[in-house]
Amino acid sequence: MRRHLLTAITLAAALALTSLAAAVEPLPSWNEGQAKRAIVDFVQRVTEDGGADFVPVPERIAVFDNDGTLWIEKPMYVQLAFALDRVKALAPQHPEWKDKQPFKAALEGDLKTVAAGGEHALLELIMATHAGMTTDAFAKVVMDWLATAKHPRFNRPYTDLVYQPMLELLTYLRANGFKTYIVSGGGIEFMRPWTEKVYGIPPEQVIGSSIKTRFELSDGKPVLVRLPEINFIDDKAGKPVGIHMHIGRRPIAAFGNSDGDLQMIQWTTAGSGERFALIVHHTDSVKEWAYDRQSHVGRLDKAFDEAKAKGWILADMMKDWKVIFPYQLK
Amino acid sequence: MRRHLLTAITLAAALALTSLAAAVEPLPSWNEGQAKRAIVDFVQRVTEDGGADFVPVPERIAVFDNDGTLWIEKPMYVQLAFALDRVKALAPQHPEWKDKQPFKAALEGDLKTVAAGGEHALLELIMATHAGMTTDAFAKVVMDWLATAKHPRFNRPYTDLVYQPMLELLTYLRANGFKTYIVSGGGIEFMRPWTEKVYGIPPEQVIGSSIKTRFELSDGKPVLVRLPEINFIDDKAGKPVGIHMHIGRRPIAAFGNSDGDLQMIQWTTAGSGERFALIVHHTDSVKEWAYDRQSHVGRLDKAFDEAKAKGWILADMMKDWKVIFPYQLK
Questions:
Q1: How large is the average pLDDT for residues B280-287?
Q2: Does B247 contact A215 at a Cβ distance shorter than 8 Å?
Q3: Own/partner pairs for A273-277, CB < 8 Å, 24+ apart?
């Protein structure tokens, strides 16, 4: 009897939820058009019980790049801005940096010289600012920085500069049984402290680049110490590797904006059954930035060609999006 | 109006579920005693809405060792039995193995010589049998082997030799909002193909040791190829590192059976708020095996002492469990 009552109540609740979900128009900040239609079509196909393209809930995995896909990446990656600010904050403890590259250039705000140092210079900056402390201490450093740092053009906290249409997309997918993951070339520990609050993505669904950590007992208290040694680079061909390592099954939908996402999209769309790929194309030079093939940050070139050849959806930020950032909502 | 109806229905369903959960006696294969009482007390404390020890659902993370905690590990780790069988299966393609250690010993079933080769010999066996194929191909090899291989003493498939009281514990925790993870020294890809079916633990909640993989386009088709190179050893001090890498937050409950789980338990119990640790003590020499301080497989020595010193729960398999394996249920 109790079981019957329970079943009836559960069914009623499920039906009510379903009709409620259907009643709310999804993706309100997306203009009507091919991109929005393709998203909604895909979601309806894979969630239609008994349909030919139905995908069971545990297999509904969607992966999102972060920089340039979920939040702003110009004029420089947010994490690079963080590293440069950290160099300044730590400089008093490192008087030798005044005369030592790439720190000298970083302290002088001379980004050209930093960039001229290439990957090696960048790695030096990252290790000097990201390692040598416990994981808990680093998370606090990140949150303290985000609480005060402002974007140079928009003069707002970086976490305000996330893309409203993509937030709606994350919500829409989760409302349809998807598990949403971040798969970013950025540092996994740089993202985890805030992704749950900002994107609704919990730390265990964040995949990114990492440095090694070591378990230690410090005065009898266990800590994880961040070491100045690369553990994993979650970019380009590393993205499918990171996805497999963390999730262990292939996503059915992938969202990116640059050549760094190409292999992730190839890996996702090569699976059997219904698959979906969308590339955010930065086309709005007024409200944000317009860039693709020639850009150093977020270059979209090979993936642009392959998207056209393979029918991956291109979301044109100017044409497809009504607003860019949440604070622009009326 | 619709919203009010929905709220009422959801509340009714939640209440019905709660009373149903309370009505079903948890952990039926556990004898009444300190271990069972400690588990139930802990779960009640962290789930009691408004209670002093309440833990929100997203923070209810429980980690389980696999070998010797969730399934059998004697007379040898299941994955070692797998590797030895694979050496035999692959021998026709490797005529040189007849005269080359440790393969010669493996083919002759001479485990003493294999063991005498130490870690290096073991690594050679693992790489020769676990690498050099795609991730999909390896998953199939594992499943094919599990479908036919039998345990030498119990003459049953290895996946029958999981611990019934621990299955009930996994179910009980999940029914109370916990996310259950495996954190094993064993290979992550050796476990993922079957953990969802056997333990109800999906691949994204399996953490383990791994070899490196490389993304490749093979005739235009993206694959991940398994390389003969260690990526990560998820054992001892590696367990907290693996937990942090995959989950990004600290578990509130940890379950193990050997010194390999010591640091995982230290890391888990050192967090603030209510914490729980339980060690499965193999005491049943009749129905399974009795072993602890002197055992090569699953040695429980340092963690045994620390459990006593810190009040971690010891589950005595003979006294605390009514049955060991699911097939013994009446």
A1: 97
A2: no
A3: A273/A53, A273/A55, A274/A42, A274/A45, A274/A46, A274/A53, A274/A55, A276/A38, A276/A39, A276/A42, A276/A252, A276/A313, A277/A253, A277/A307, A277/A310, A277/A312, A277/A313
- Mutation for B interface: A209, A219, A224, most B CBs within 10 A: A224
Residues 6+ apart with CB under 8 A from A318: A283, A284, A287, A290
A 234-273: CB under 8 A from B? 237-238, 240-241, 244-249, 263, 266-267, 270
Alpha helices in chain A (DSSP H): 2-23, 34-47, 78-90, 103-107, 111-116, 118-130, 135-148, 164-175, 188-199, 238-246, 262-269, 302-310, 317-320
List the single residue in B16, B245, B270 with the smallest CB-CB distance to A9.
Answer: B16
Average pLDDT, chain A: 94
Does residue A151 contact residue A161 with C-beta atoms inside 8 Å? Answer: yes
pLDDT of A1 reads 42
pLDDT at position B1 is 43
Rounded to a whole number of angstroms, the distance from the CA of A247 to the nearest CA of chain B is: 4
Q: Is A7 helix (H, G, I), strand (E, B) or coil?
A: helix
Residue B192 near chain A (CB below 8 Å): yes
pTM tops 0.80: yes
Please report, as a single letter, which amino acid is at residue B321: W
CA dist A212 → A69, A209, B12 (Å): 26, 10, 48
Q: Does A56 touch chain B (CB under 8 A)?
A: no
- What are B40-62's pLDDT values in tens digits? 999 999 999 999 999 999 999 99
Contact A222 B192 (CB under 8 A): no
A44 CB-near residues (< 8 Å, 6+ apart): none
Tell me the angle at which helices B262-269 and B302-310 cross, rounded to the nearest 10 degrees: 20
Residue A25: pLDDT band with limits 50, 70, 90: confident
- Residue B146's region, left for phi above 0, alpha for psi from -120 to 50, else beta, is alpha
- Tell if the CB–CB gap between A241 and B210 is shorter than 8 Å: no
More confident call, B98 vs B118: B98
B125 sits in the region (left: phi over 0; alpha: psi -120 to 50; else beta) called alpha
Among the listed residues B280, B292, B291, B286, the one whose alpha carbon sits nearest the alpha carbon of residue B317: B280
User: Does residue B212 have a pLDDT over 70?
Assistant: yes
Q: What does the alpha-carbon distance between residue A122 and residue B166 come to, in Å, rounded to a whole number?
A: 48
**B56: contact with A, CB 8 A cutoff:** no
* Residue A54: strand, helix, or coil: coil
